[in-house]
């Protein structure tokens, strides 16, 4: 992510400046998550942060840089955990449990994240690649093949033992993540079709956290 003039300085910023910058980031996250980068306006972010618009430009110079800072903040909460879990020396069942809990907990705290990430991937794929690489500390195109290869070994061991039906590691990961993300991405539709208010939706997600691991494992049994 391109760094701002303020961020390039090696001198430690005063506490007051750090607090102001964080307040702007927090406000920008609220606006970007609801409206996406294209629909967000700097004036609205300034109003949300309680500062004037000139101060936004002082810290971040442009909407693109502010959007990049917000996306990297969000990506740093999701993608490193995904990489760590896939690469962890634990059983396949434990990986399923960890990924489900991680995604459902993260999305429950940030209900607009799925739609925001999908929008960013569609509209700014080249910038998203850079920001994800920064969040996990490596290019995912280089890192993921090794992780998927190790995951494939675990899957093949289970298949050879007769306890799992064949599935590629790519399908395994995408199926699992999709089952976690879809309710959040489709929340407005589910609210209408199933008559869920916010409290009912969160109760639904808590139930899903308990039921989804067994559902996913059962789907893979021969």
What does this structure look like?
With 222 residues, the protein is mainly alpha-helical. The model is unreliable at 1-10 (pLDDT under 50). The protein contains twelve helices and no strands. Helix 2 packs across helix 7 and helix 6 packs parallel to helix 10 (169-185).
Keywords, separated by commas or semicolons:
single chain, 222 residues, mainly alpha, Tetracycline Repressor, domain 2
Which term fits the overall shape?
Answer: globular
Distance between the termini: 45 Å
Corresponding CATH architecture: Orthogonal Bundle
Structural class: mainly alpha
The poorly predicted ranges are 1-10
CATH class: Mainly Alpha
**CATH H level: which superfamily?**
Tetracycline Repressor, domain 2
Q: What fraction strand?
A: under 5%
Q: What's the structural domain tally? A: 1
Main sheet characteristics: none
Element string (H = helix, E = strand):
HHHHHHHHHHHH
Question: Compute the gyration radius: what is it?
Answer: 20 Å
Short structural description:
The protein is an all-alpha fold and 222 residues long.
Secondary-structure map:
Blueprint: H1 5-8, H2 15-39, H3 42-49, H4 53-60, H5 63-87, H6 92-109, H7 113-123, H8 125-136, H9 140-160, H10 169-185, H11 187-193, H12 198-220
Helix pairs in contact: 2-3, 2-5, 2-7, 5-6, 5-8, 6-10, 6-12
């Amino acid at each position: 992510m391109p760094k701002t003039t303020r961020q390039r300085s090696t001198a430690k910023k005063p506490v007051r400046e750090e607090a102001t910058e964080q307040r702007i980031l927090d406000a920008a996250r609220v606006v970007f998550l609801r409206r996406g980068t294209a629909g967000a306006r700097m004036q609205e972010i300034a109003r949300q942060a309680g500062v004037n618009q000139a101060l936004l430009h002082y810290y971040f110079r442009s909407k693109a840089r502010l959007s990049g800072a917000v996306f990297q903040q969000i990506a740093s909460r999701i993608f490193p955990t995904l990489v760590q879990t896939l690469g962890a020396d634990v059983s396949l069942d434990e990986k399923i449990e960890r990924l489900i809990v991680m995604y459902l907990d993260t999305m429950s705290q940030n209900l607009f994240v799925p739609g925001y990430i999908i929008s960013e991937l569609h509209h700014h794929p080249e910038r998203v690649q850079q920001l994800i690489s920064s969040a996990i500390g490596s290019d995912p195109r280089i890192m993921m093949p090794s992780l998927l290869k190790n995951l494939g070994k675990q899957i093949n061991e289970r298949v050879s033992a007769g306890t799992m039906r064949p599935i590629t590691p790519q399908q395994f990961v995408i199926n699992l993540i999709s089952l976690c993300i879809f309710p959040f991405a489709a929340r407005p539709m589910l609210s209408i079709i199933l008559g869920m208010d916010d409290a009912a939706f969160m109760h639904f997600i808590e139930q899903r956290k308990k039921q989804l691991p067994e559902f996913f494992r059962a789907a893979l049994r021969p």
